[in-house]
Amino acid sequence: MAKFTHHIFVCCNRRAPDHSRGCCDPEGSEQLRECFKHEVKRRGLDPLVRANKAGCLDQCELGATVVIYPQAIWYGGVRKEDVPRIIEETIIGGRVIKELLIPDHLLNTKGGKSLP
Ligand code: FES
User: Fold this and answer.
1) Per CATH, the architecture of 6-106 is what?
2) How far apart are CA 102 and CA 74, in angstroms?
3) At residue 109, does pLDDT exceed 90?
């Protein structure tokens, strides 16, 4: 069986509205993941590209968070409107979208601040 070329993990974590870190899917609707699934299918990219639901990816303050493996491209602040562009430019075109990229120095920080 062929390997996946891209595995898109979409944070669908939901927390209480008053949680200090917030969350990527406050309504628990999983609409962002559904958009990715729809676009992957519409472009005929399945089964080699797959969009999966993920729990918290620990980049909450920078969400909605999406990570694409095996390329390890981390996107933050992702909205439904960004999905066609991510599929077109990153998945098909192999280009990183700088405006959505979470820079390495902000990964694994709380609130997007550098760790001590
Ligand atoms: S809630 Fe999405 S990264 Fe934590």
Assistant:
1) 3-Layer(aba) Sandwich (3.40)
2) 6
3) no
